[in-house]
Model the fold of this input.
Amino acid sequence: MASWEVATGTLFLAQVICGILGNFSLLSHHVFLSLTGFKARCTDLILRHLLVANCLVILSYGVPQAVTALRWKFLPSDAECNLLFYVQRVSRAVFIESTCFLSIFQAITISPRNSRWAELKVKAPRYIGLSSMLCWILNMLINTIIPIYVTSKWINTSITKRKDYGYCNAVFQDTFTGSLFLALLLLPDAVSLGLMLLASSYMVFILHRHKQQVQHIHGPRNASPRTSPESRATRSILALVSTFVFFYTVSSTFQVYLALLSKPSRLTVNISALFAGCFPTLSPYLLMSCDSRVSRLCFAWIRNTKSPNIIRNMYLVFAL
Done:
């Protein structure tokens, strides 16, 4: 076994362990809050779907690549390959769309009461569960074509356009078919990315405007030298969005590159799988780092009933 194979397998194992630990910790935090009587927030359900999708992405991408790199005995059957690629595609699409939903509902939550979204602000929480379930159902239906293009390495085929992923093969009649197939799968992801950028930009605008209003009311003499809640929330939004955009762009670029190559190298396949699992691994840590004083903010939210609406809404969104 070559040293680079050991390093690659170890890297994938580290990603799986860190990702599952982070997502499980955040999920445990939400379960603990619900068991101790804290009122559920409108974004909690979206976060739970996001965490489940994250775990599926990490396991479906990381574990097979780690096992293959370390040359452990792993030769799945045709049905197992179909299931593995199916879970990869569905979970990846759901985590992207759930991240988009999270940004949209956060934007609705912190919008002023006198804005055009005031009516939607009341109705939106009713449709969170339905939207999350439809997200899973639609992606499960869209990706039913996966078995057409995935086979086990045990099966001999005369098709020349075969892409070796180490543990399974993806087969296409020609490069155009593979590119079209990938474009159809990436189109919903691109739409979700655009909506997320719009929602995040709106949140940054609202927070910046509120900060200016507060400074105008209190004047420069009462300005605190400490970082304002608006600035901390803005930094959290920008950190989450920029990280998502970076890893999504790199991962999608490698997937398009794989679709165009007739015989991709093992290094290209490994890098593509590694970047596919990066954001699901990092996102729970980014969400938890929005404010390290989680418990204090939760108790402050219950006690403080005289805070401005915009500040309370930010606590609702970012006090994870």
Observations:
- The beta strands are 150-152, 161-164, 168-172.
- The chain is about 75% helix and 5% strand.
